[in-house]
Specification:
The protein has 90 residues and is of the alpha+beta class. The protein has 3 helices and 4 strands.
């Protein structure tokens, strides 16, 4: 069954299947900010010799032996970027 959706001025926009709209709503979506997708960042990493200094400068950060920074999810990535003064480019 299809229903009509209307603009604020009353003009019809398009026929929409309510099941599709329900699936698109925030209630049924998954936030990519909180889903754990662990990965190692080389761009926010340091040289292996600088790992101990980086851990003192940015407490709570996790580095591997190659100096790569552990990123847990998108929200964590944004937090780590802000701590380092980085900006995400489109």
């Amino acid at each position: 069954m299809f229903t009509k959706r209307y603009k604020w001025n009353g003009d019809p926009v398009v026929d929409v299947n309510p099941d599709i709209e329900r699936c698109r709503s925030k209630r049924y979506s998954v936030s990519t900010d909180i889903v754990n997708n662990e990965r190692w960042s080389e761009s926010m990493g340091v040289t292996p010799e600088q790992v101990s200094e980086a851990m003192r400068t940015f407490p709570g950060s996790v580095y591997d032996s190659d100096g790569r920074l552990l990123i847990k999810n998108r929200k964590h990535k944004i937090q780590e970027m802000k701590r380092r003064g980085y900006a995400e480019l489109d």
